[in-house]
Amino acid sequence: MAQFRVCPDSGFYFDRSAESLMKANAVAGAVSLLIAGILGLGVILTRWQEVHLLPADLFYQVLTGHGINALIFWIIFFEMAILYFASSTLLRTRLAAPRWAWLGFALMIIGMVMNNVAVLQGNSSVMMTSYAPMQAAPHFYLGLILFAVGALIGCFVFLGTLVIARDDKTYEGSIPLVTFGALTACIIAVFTIASGAIILVPTFLWSIGYIGHIDAAMYRVIWWGLGHSSQQINVAAHVSVWYLIAGVLFGARPMSEKVSRFAFLLYILFLQLASAHHILVDPGISSEWKVFNTSYAMYLAVLASMIHGLTVPGSVEVAQRAKGYTKGMFEWLRKAPWGNPVFSGFFFSLIIFGFIGGITGVVMGTEQINLIIHNTIYVPAHFHATVAVGTTLAFMALTYLLIPVLFRRALFLPWMAKWQPYVFSAGMTLMILFMLGAGTLGVSRRHWDMDFTGALLSFEYSGTAYTMMGVAGVGGVLGVLGGAMYLIVTVGSLLFGKKLDESAGLFQGFGVPLAPSSYNVSQPERLPMAPKLAVEQHGSGGMEAPGTFVLALALLVCFVVYYFINWDYLASVWPLS
Amino acid sequence: MLGRLWQWYPILELEKNQSYRLHLSSMDWNHGFSLQPVNINLQIIPGYEMVLTVTPDQAGEFTVVCNEYCGIGHHLMLGKIYVGEN
Question: What is the pTM of this model?
């Protein structure tokens, strides 16, 4: 018999087994983020040429570990927690096959440890992309494969939970928008993991000697089916988190629910093709293919993000105006709860993802412009805006919501939590903007030494490039500090935060369920008896959001100006064909 | 021009405003052809040959930086293209 508790603060229902899985996955994610952050500090302090902390071998090793822990382990563990929340909690239903979900979790932990051990041993400094024919130790690939299998099991548990909810009729009509977004993420995840299996399984067999040859270009094409699509999982997941936070904090409803759903659908149909951007300047692939994927396909996918970018703050504006914040264009935004890290983290995630991540993404995704950007430090700048701020900060904001709601703890050091999104955003934005600048000046990514010490020939970047990398270094250190603040608040809350439930058990923060007396509901109340929360329901909020439209126009102006600046840079290179 | 661990071979001497067919490939791993300070960046993949027509429109000394990670000596991998006035 499934057991449920109702969170007295938020009204959310938690199935006992789903709750433990959410906690375990969120904690595993935080551990991965800790590893990623420490390694990230090593990376940024080495690329800051005046500091140049690590020797070359250690730098490449640390960079490999940083990428995998941040981009794969932290984000996917947290996404598993989101999938369980969006299915079981938002649909008020029991989780399908919790034992399978735990098996998936165990595989993910084993995979994560195995891969980290491989990198730590030093023979697998092949970067996250591990381009064949450069070879890592077999357990480097095996760890990733096990992790992916575990995540795949989690996806099927999510889908199974949707089936149970439908059979039990725990909701009316179609699933709520946040769950719909999570479903989008899940479908893209299945595609991504399939691509990953197609390329990583043969690569693993090659690393132990069963297969003689992996074609280098084929590897890149299929690997990016994994590499970029996995970022679309993140986009779908963090957009769902935006809707969730807007709904919980403001009771906001999407401006038009149909349009938002349609935008999620566009992600499934077109965003995978963003993978094509990584191979724009590769040989052996036709121009027609590149142009199709980077024009029609991409514009439709970007359209989806622009819809979400408009409707999420728009829905907040509509909800705020309904509360009476109607003065001028921006009173709704001025009077928003800026001291609440759930709001500030959510809003900075939205702005930095849209303005910096979105604009740079479209610019570098243009086949012609890609020529002046490919493999420069512009590329990591772009994905730090999208993933390291867009996704990561959205997840951080959600964590501040989950600590009281899911873990039943008060925030530890609330003043630190309050400032954390500001410090993290400021540091990361500084780092990203100056890395973009350095990339435009040609500074290469994944490069230990921009002085080229010891090379037979010599080359010197301009002084401006050095200054930019220095400022990026300062920003990066500040960003790591912001990340550390997040972990201090999170871990501190689980260990020392005031318990919000008298009957809570000692280890409740680490995946062990709350005391049995907390679970006093055997079946969640059904419609129409129980009032549903905004995020569990349907409906649109309306379009009365002039402030948001002004912000959107500002985004377009920034984009157009910046796009033409880049065409101008391109016009200054040698004629090529 | 060939990329291999860890150099670009050979050093090229070109003339300004002449068109050339440039063949690029790699002997071993992925490399990145990054012509500085002009800022032209191309992916070089072993087993594939990229052929492009280039017309240098500036004279001087240009450096080919490897911008795809290719192991411990990645930062040593530089090449040169000299463009003379004709």
Answer: 0.91
